[in-house]
Amino acid sequence: MVRPHFRQTERFDRYKALSNIWFHHRMKFSDLGLSSKVLAAVEAAGYETPTPIQAQAIPHVLSKKDVLGVAQTGTGKTASFTLPMLSLLESGRPRARMPRTLILEPTRELAAQVEQSFEVYGQNHRLTVALLIGGVSFADQIKKLDRGADVLIATPGRLLDHFERGKLLLNGVDTFIVDEADRMLDMGFIPDIERICKLLPPSRQTVFFSATMPSEIQSLADQFLRNPERIEVAPPSSTAKTITQGIVASGSKPWEKRAILRDLINNAQDLQNAIIFCNRKRDVATLFRSLNKHGFNAGALHGDMDQTSRMATLDSFKSGELNILVASDVAARGLDIPSVSHVFNFDLPTHAEDYVHRIGRTGRAGREGVALSIATRSDSKYLDAIEKLINEKISWHGDSSFSAQSDDEEEDGKSRRGSRNSKRGRGNKKDKVAKDRRDKKENDETPDQKEERKPRGRRDRQDRTNDQFEAPARPRPPQQHRGNRRGRDRDDKQVIGMGDHVPAFMLAPIRPPKRKGKKVQSETAE
User: What's the 3-state SS for 394-423?
Assistant: First the structure.
């Protein structure tokens, strides 16, 4: 088979893109088979045309087929299963502790966001939505389960906690949805998902959505999905074309990276708000304090915060009270904040897939965004993995790069080594001069002066050797007893009992007790 020329391939890709745009603009939500109540809610929310993932996934979900959807982050995957589920749930009623639909999310923030989507799109429905996440009282969640839930949104850990307590039954689930499946893999939830799948009825409908498709997720989908409809509207692990990406070189010191970050924020054009990602939670807290110290309006978000603080910080960032959000990867997946203009990677992620999700917080819904990453020389392997995953070279911002940085560090290392060697050389030179002086002095001495210069003990030993003289051996003193000092002066006679030190009360006569009606004469011991 003859491969097409590059220009032919580029022309075909351009034609395909134009066809998708034409199809996208002609398609309406009313053409997807949604109910009138759902269409009214979508129109009230201000949406007219569906995204490619929504246009292809909604008809398959409405027809009760298993779906495996792969799309970039920020393409509207949440509405791809929320809208058809609302249409399917219009008939029927829930039973106590037996939800009709189950949605698994990797983080609490994503679960709360899906709940908000049901509130927006389900405003014309009378459906009960239960949210099971950590950091919230069990009692309030149990009350919702006892009343019956049409839709159950949960994280895997809290869901299994309720099931093990006997407060939840999963044999009534008709539709099972796993959102952000690749994030589930990164967080170690795959064993929990396998256990949950085995608790569900075999006749259920299963839907998997993910931004990337690792081999582990593919094997899990092959195990639990039956003839799924695979929907792939963008290449796996690709980034949106509306995002301008860049790399900025930095030294390895944390204070150097913080200084570069402040310069990037101050010199950024059209910066409305920004999310700054760190790899470690303690770095999030340190960078948050540093930015506030330098006058930036920043907030922090990481997994060790309690749920109330996390939601309050996220709401403040969405409302515009905070301009900068310093976060860990807990904010990298699925959070729908459409107006984020910039994303900064204070640390390059160790997993290349996380880079795709991080920069996906900007450039959403066709908007333009900027994603800049600060990298040190030790991050070169992570950068290579990212560029290999997204199949794209990321441009450098500024004059410096890893090569220039490595040259500077090499020069610094040479200068430091040279200073140490120079100090070491001065010490060796002093020792050599002192040794030359000693040798010259010894050469000028007479034999008698050399003999007089010898140590006293050395001369005595030499005299005894020459005269064959041996000093009489000194008598050794008697060896002292090194045992118990307190027992040194004691008599070796063995003491029986208490010896002469018997207490007086033990020598008193023993009188037998008196009995009633009888006189008992007391016997005295002689």
Answer: CCECCCCCHHHHHHHHHHHHHHHHHHHHHH
